[in-house]
Prior knowledge:
The complex is a heterodimer.
Chain A: E1 2-6, H1 10-22, E2 26-30, H2 33-42, E3 47-51, E4 53-54, E5 57-58, H3 59-68, E6 74-79, H4 83-89, E7 97-100, H5 105-119, E8 126-129, E9 132-135, E10 140-143, E11 146-147, H6 152-163, E12 168-170, H7 171-179, H8 188-205, E13 212-215, E14 219-222
Parallel strand pairs in A: 1-2, 1-3, 3-6, 6-7
Antiparallel strand pairs in A: 4-5, 8-9, 9-10, 10-11, 12-14, 13-14
Chain B: H1 3-55, E1 68-72, E2 83-92, E3 97-106, E4 109-110, E5 113-123, H2 126-160, H3 162-173, H4 190-239, H5 245-276, E6 284-286, H6 287-304, E7 308-313, E8 318-320, H7 323-339, E9 346-351, E10 355-361, H8 389-400, E11 403-409, E12 412-418
Parallel strand pairs in B: 7-9
Antiparallel strand pairs in B: 1-5, 2-3, 3-5, 4-5, 6-8, 9-10, 10-12, 11-12
Helix pairs in contact in B: 1-2, 4-5, 5-8, 6-7, 7-8
Catalytic activity (chain B): ATP + protein L-histidine = ADP + protein N-phospho-L-histidine
Organism (chain B): Hymenobacter telluris
Protein name (chain B): histidine kinase
Amino acid sequence: xxxxxxxxxxxxxxxxxxxxxxxxxxxxxxxxxxxxxxxxxxxxxxxxxxxxxxxxxxxxxxxxxxxxxxxxxxxxxxxxxxxxxxxxxxxxxxxxxxxxxxxxxxxxxxxxxxxxxxxxxxxxxxxxxxxxxxxxxxxxxxxxxxxxxxxxxxxxxxxxxxxxxxxxxxxxxxxxxxxxxxxxxxxxxxxxxxxxxxxxxxxxxxxxxxxxxxxxxxxxxxxxxx
Amino acid sequence: xxxxxxxxxxxxxxxxxxxxxxxxxxxxxxxxxxxxxxxxxxxxxxxxxxxxxxxxxxxxxxxxxxxxxxxxxxxxxxxxxxxxxxxxxxxxxxxxxxxxxxxxxxxxxxxxxxxxxxxxxxxxxxxxxxxxxxxxxxxxxxxxxxxxxxxxxxxxxxxxxxxxxxxxxxxxxxxxxxxxxxxxxxxxxxxxxxxxxxxxxxxxxxxxxxxxxxxxxxxxxxxxxxxxxxxxxxxxxxxxxxxxxxxxxxxxxxxxxxxxxxxxxxxxxxxxxxxxxxxxxxxxxxxxxxxxxxxxxxxxxxxxxxxxxxxxxxxxxxxxxxxxxxxxxxxxxxxxxxxxxxxxxxxxxxxxxxxxxxxxxxxxxxxxxxxxxxxxxxxxxxxxxxxxxxxxxxxxxxxxxxxxxxxxxxxxxxxxxxxxxxxx
Lengths: 226, 424
């Protein structure tokens, strides 16, 4: 899958690109409006990650041009603007999603996956990890074929883990994913602990292996285990 | 006290003093002229008596002699003056009271013989008869003068102070954050022109300074987001590499601090955003739906803390608020209610067409509740909050004229949002 990252801050671009490459995406970087425009004319990308503030133009204008030219790529706006800006001004119009800086990298990954799934709804509807399966359409999760009785938050959490398998997820990243805008003013990390605990218990109770490991009490990781 | 009242009082005191002095002068003059008139009459009488003596006939039974004493001067007596005037208070038997008596003595020479002619008359002193009348006259004059001063000072000060009052109203309406500038009409009074010139220059400068500062803080916190995002991404990448526990712990500590920095920064940008936000009171939001949705979104968090939530909603309460801002307001209120609650506590949400009340159990705040609306004010220092949520809530309320109150009593925290009437 090919991704174009339009971001003028070189270090941030490098980090995002390196992360996405680890996740087996092909990631190209454009630092300016013109460069991005040129790349978009020459090549086809599945997803465009678009910063709004570019040194030689506005990302929103690029998005409009893109849509006018009939470019089919999904667009996620990456912006330093506040979430409220998007809600109040409809800034993200024409984009598939937006994410505000700073964001946890796994969150970006989850958003890309979600968009890709929406793009092609009939393809790859079931996520699997070892003997865990998650049906994205019916939102049913199973261990060794046995249905797990999960709450919506727990299902969401499990999907997040499977999408970011083998990676350490910090409590903050999980909180941001589960509660989004609601997390601003909460000690959400304590709640993350509760949710993870419940999820682990439900999996092991259903006869599954405890794939989720705690990393020094700082975060969690979904591992294939021994 | 209003300026013209002060003037009126000053004028009243001044006119009272002037009238008092005037009264004294009039009284003294009157008193003097009465005596002088009497002396004039007596002088005439003495001349008549002297003429009678010169005629040589006997006038002793004449009415002119009733109050006149005539005697021959001894040869040794020499007249030092042409006449002698004496005024003194004496008991008058015919009037049965002490009266002021004027005596005039003249020393005419009749056929070589010097006579002493002393005539007397009772003077009615002004103090007896005129004083009351005089006082009445002056009192009435004072009353009329006072009335005139009061009425005129109202009228005149209204006219003269009109530009001044306009300046005052202009200053009252002036708001630093608003784009409108202070506009003042020139007046005919030099001082007022100086004042309004000064005010216009000052407010314009304050406005541009304020605007600059606001833009700076908005840009600064905005510009910080990208470097923070970059650092955060790098820390996350590092966390996924092979690290010792010690390194990982340090990295996580850095990450947590960065998270905190992010939240402070985001809240500040948000507040700056809200400062600039132009509300449209015409947009209505269905609070009933929103409160229900927000409560549902926080339900799992409340449950985990063992809190019992009760909702009491009037359906279809529509309030002038932007949906996104209403959501933000409710998020902040509900998350506060959960965060500052005690395990096993309670939350009551009550929505009526006029107000929204959120009550929750919790510990007593350590600072006066009114201060909690300030930025970075925390009721409980132990909690890892940044203390900006209520400032945001208050600001959102202000934007639409909703009044936000916070009170604490007997273990219950109560936030009341009293809705402003929707614009028609």
